[in-house]
Give the backbone structure.
Amino acid sequence: MILVTGGAGFIGANFVLDWLASADHGSEPVVNLDKLTYAGNLDTLASLQGDARHVFVQGDIGDAALVGELLATHQPRAVINFAAESHVDRSIHGPEDFIQTNVLGTFRLLEAVRQYWLGLGASQKEAFRFLHVSTDEVYGSLSKTAPAFAETHPYEPNSPYSASKAASDHLVRAWHHTYGLPVLTTNCSNNYGPYHFPEKLIPLMIVNALAGKPLPVYGDGMQIRDWLYVKDHCSAIRRVLRAGRLGETYNVGGWNEKPNIDIVHTVCALLDELRPKADGSSYATQITHVTDRPGHDRRYAIDARKLEAELGWKPAETFETGIRKTVQWYLANPEWVANVQSGAYREWVGKQYGASAEVGA
């Protein structure tokens, strides 16, 4: 049994689905704790309804009593922590939620897990793992020619989101060095793939393009990110959980540095091919440049050589194969997209990008 927190969000839900579909792990049940904020979506987990291997609990990682009860009842051998507020733009507008969840929530989760771990028998205690899933944004921003982020790169967070995640990483490290809690940390680059909430770049471009809405691109669109297909990220987490060295951090990246504007043009070209517009025009005509967000980091890049050298992990997808699978998934799943586009979501997109960019239901 494993306990997954944030398992109804984008990466967490993909992890749960992949875990239970795996020949290696499919027989090992998952307790899934998720607060079900705007980005938590049980529709993503609909295929697991009635599956005894999946126990879903709605709740907050900051609820120490609930977490303690779940740990005592289910006796997991590992906790994988995906639970986080994770959107930079939202953190700029409302940073307190990020402090509450990412800092205080992580602290309370660590304390509940530590008390549980201390009560385990010797063999269970030795086998137990706490894996904390984090982001490359804690490292700050790179110049165009600087080497990619290695695990030894200093933390230089530039947004309320990345600062709160940096704090959570430090707490995890401290609970290992101070209390001996057997922890592992992964810092990933930008994920994309199925079930991605459409406030993030790639799904927003797909959804807006199909709705005939503007495709809002911040500033000049030359912000560079390293793109990682979400199922590759899930496989990396499984590998670190199985064989990672205690107390270590492993960077997970896709070796796919791309400017945002190139991502948008790639999405448009795939839609032109797979769902051409009736008038024959390209979706690229809908691209609209909007005012850049405050403190927008120019470049992230992950050096994932440690993960490959120590644990033998490499991404299975190139950006070209992963982005095609992603666009095809959104075209094949319009019901899922429609169900997440609540009134609150439309209000958010309109507030952030302007009313003209609001996504229709």
Remarks:
- The two ends are 38 Å apart (CA to CA).
